[in-house]
Amino acid sequence: MERPDSSRLAAWQDFLFAHSRLLRELERELGEASGLSVAQYDVLLRLSHAPEKRLRMVDLSEAVLYTTGGVTRLIDRMAAAGLVTREPSPTDRRAVLAALTPAGEELLRQAGRVHLAGIQRHFGALLPDEELPAVARFLGRLARPGDEPRSADGCAPDSVLAEVDAETGSGAETESDGAVRQ
User: Fold this and answer.
1) Where are the beta strands (DSSP E) in 13-104?
2) 67 touches 39 (CB < 8 A)
3) What is the pTM assigned to this prediction?
4) Looking at the structure, do residues 29 and 82 belong to the same domain, yes or no?
5) 87-107 burial, b if ≥16 CB within 10 A, otherwise e?
6) Which of 87, 146, 161, 177 is surrounded by the fewest CB atoms within 10 Å?
7) In whole angstroms, how far apart are CA 148 and each of 22, 38, 176, 179?
């Protein structure tokens, strides 16, 4: 078995610590501003990008980033708060859909601004433009081996991205190398 060299092990450890620290900060800020956890925000965001703002529970479980289990209990809590509803599938009697409510959509829009600001403050501001292409390519290989680059729309609702772009007079564009350029 080949073992990573000390530089790679140190980079791995920094990656783990950075991921943990960033999620703690984003979780704290999102909770203070909106009452949402990052996992709840993620569910609302996935539903906002889904056709008709609904997903089968099994598909939602596969789509969310910040929780690997307990999606059913998470949806139950979010339904009790009026952010989502559970609906029977019109095409499969065995399936249950999670659907975004207007209240959930509005809270997502408000929370999206906080989340984007946190991403910029804790990640984007620390990533110099000259390092961005290499970091984006590397993280893309880690996240999606063999897949196409991802767009920036997975971080906030389209309406929030458009509002922020309009306010700042900038728009993020995804380049052919997967890097997001201003």
Assistant:
1) 54-56, 84-88, 96-100
2) yes
3) 0.82
4) yes
5) eeeeeeeeeebbbbbeebbeb
6) 146
7) 25, 25, 10, 12
